[in-house]
UniProtKB/TrEMBL annotation:
<feature type="transmembrane region" description="Helical">
    <location>
        <begin position="21"/>
        <end position="39"/>
    </location>
</feature>
<feature type="transmembrane region" description="Helical">
    <location>
        <begin position="74"/>
        <end position="100"/>
    </location>
</feature>
<keyword id="KW-0813">Transport</keyword>
<feature type="transmembrane region" description="Helical">
    <location>
        <begin position="45"/>
        <end position="62"/>
    </location>
</feature>
<keyword id="KW-0472">Membrane</keyword>
<keyword id="KW-1003">Cell membrane</keyword>
<keyword id="KW-0812">Transmembrane</keyword>
<comment type="similarity">
    <text>Belongs to the autoinducer-2 exporter (AI-2E) (TC 2.A.86) family.</text>
</comment>
<dbReference type="InterPro" id="IPR002549">
    <property type="entry name" value="AI-2E-like"/>
</dbReference>
<feature type="transmembrane region" description="Helical">
    <location>
        <begin position="241"/>
        <end position="266"/>
    </location>
</feature>
<feature type="transmembrane region" description="Helical">
    <location>
        <begin position="313"/>
        <end position="344"/>
    </location>
</feature>
<feature type="transmembrane region" description="Helical">
    <location>
        <begin position="213"/>
        <end position="235"/>
    </location>
</feature>
<dbReference type="Pfam" id="PF01594">
    <property type="entry name" value="AI-2E_transport"/>
</dbReference>
<feature type="transmembrane region" description="Helical">
    <location>
        <begin position="158"/>
        <end position="180"/>
    </location>
</feature>
<protein>
    <submittedName>
        <fullName>AI-2E family transporter</fullName>
    </submittedName>
</protein>
<feature type="transmembrane region" description="Helical">
    <location>
        <begin position="273"/>
        <end position="293"/>
    </location>
</feature>
<keyword id="KW-1133">Transmembrane helix</keyword>
Length: 364
């Protein structure tokens, strides 16, 4: 090979190497920019994800109403959202009315409870006396007053947090409404882009995803309502004060998969033991029995029919999602895992590259 030809080959190799280096650098920069964008807009992305879950859950109701009674999509969507808000308002009223009554009773009894606690009388005072907490509070009263003063100062931050929560809630509702309203147009666009060959598969994936999300949200809410109502009955029968407030906290905690019922049991059993040892034992026995029923009857039925996930996948999904996104991740872990399972089932290697048929016995 001549020297001129060798130099040309070397120059070509250098250009290929430089091009590959630039491609790698560009991919790294693009990945870094994408991650920075996700981090900067993480709050909005969380709102979009939550709205998408609610939209997927409400879309079948809108489709059914539009198909049977209302022709206009906008009217059907509005009616479904109004009905959903009405149901939530009724449930909220059933919770808030006893809650306000319990808070009023607590406000009336607060001075008496405080005097008993300081004197070491009553359930709270006796508990503080046994644990040595009353002596600690008396010795560090000045520090506690200073701490309380500091807690009252950041009122602006608390107000800003409340406003951000309200803004997020309104944004999620508007996004979910628009997603449901524009769902047919979005679906037609996706089917047109996918072509006739993949349209049937996309429809099947959409139906399975919608069924998983709707079943999970509905079932999880139903389990929490059942847990809250039963907790209220047990606390009311055992005479534990502020039963409605405690039952509400237990119902909210029970929304968290796997560990929610345990957290609720700690709250309710603690309140029961503060009232009396008998009430604490009764509440503790109730939660032991209820957790067995929920874990082995209610949740398996929901997961088997709606999401179809095995217990190991559920546990790993909840732990990973809770570590990445906190409470919201734990709430959305199971339906997200169901969606991923559906996508893998439809587009995984077994579907993209089906195995060859088994040869007849005489050819083996």
């Amino acid at each position: 090979m001549s020297k001129g030809k060798a130099r040309r080959v070397s120059a070509a190799d250098d250009r290929v190497t430089a091009r590959r280096t630039l491609i790698v650098i560009g991919l790294v920069l693009a990945t870094a920019l994408a991650l920075a964008f996700v981090y900067a807009t993480r709050r909005v992305l969380v709102w979009v994800v939550v709205a998408a879950f609610f939209a997927v859950a409400l879309k079948p109701l809108v489709d059914r109403l539009q198909r049977r009674f209302v022709r206009r999509r906008s009217l059907a969507t509005l009616l479904v959202f109004l009905a959903t808000f009405a149901v939530l308002a009724i449930l909220g009223a059933l919770i808030v009315v006893p809650l306000i009554d319990e808070l009023g009773r607590f406000a009336d009894r607060a001075p008496e409870l405080l005097r008993d606690a300081r004197a070491g009388r009553g359930p709270i005072g006796q508990t503080l006396e046994r644990t040595g907490a009353r002596r600690y509070l008396a010795e560090h009263s000045d520090q506690l007053r200073a701490f309380g003063t500091r807690l009252r100062q950041p009122a602006v931050g608390v107000l800003r947090g409340v406003l951000e929560t309200v803004a997020g809630l309104v944004t999620v509702i508007v996004l979910a409404y628009l997603m449901v309203l524009e769902a047919p147009r979005i679906t037609r666009g996706l089917l047109a882009a996918a072509g006739d060959g993949h349209g049937q598969r996309l429809r099947r994936v959409g139906r399975e995803v919608s069924r998983s999300v709707t079943g999970y949200l509905t079932g999880n809410l139903l389990i929490s309502v059942i847990c809250g109502l039963l907790t209220y009955l047990v606390l009311a029968l055992t005479g534990v004060p502020f039963a409605a407030v405690i039952a509400l906290l237990v119902a909210v905690a029970d929304l968290i998969p796997l560990v929610g019922a345990t957290l609720g049991a700690v709250i309710a059993a603690g309140a029961g033991f503060l009232h009396s040892p008998v009430a604490g034992v009764v509440v503790l026995v109730f939660f032991v029995v209820y957790q067995q029923v929920e874990n082995h009857l209610l949740q398996p039925v929901i997961l088997a029919r709606a999401v179809q996930l095995n217990p190991l996948t559920v546990l790993v999904s909840v732990l990973l999602a809770a570590e990445l996104a906190g409470l919201l991740g734990a709430l959305l872990a199971i339906p997200a895992a169901g969606i991923i399972q559906t996508l893998l089932r439809e587009y995984g290697p077994n579907r993209l590259h089906p195995t060859s048929p088994t040869p007849p016995a005489d050819q083996r």
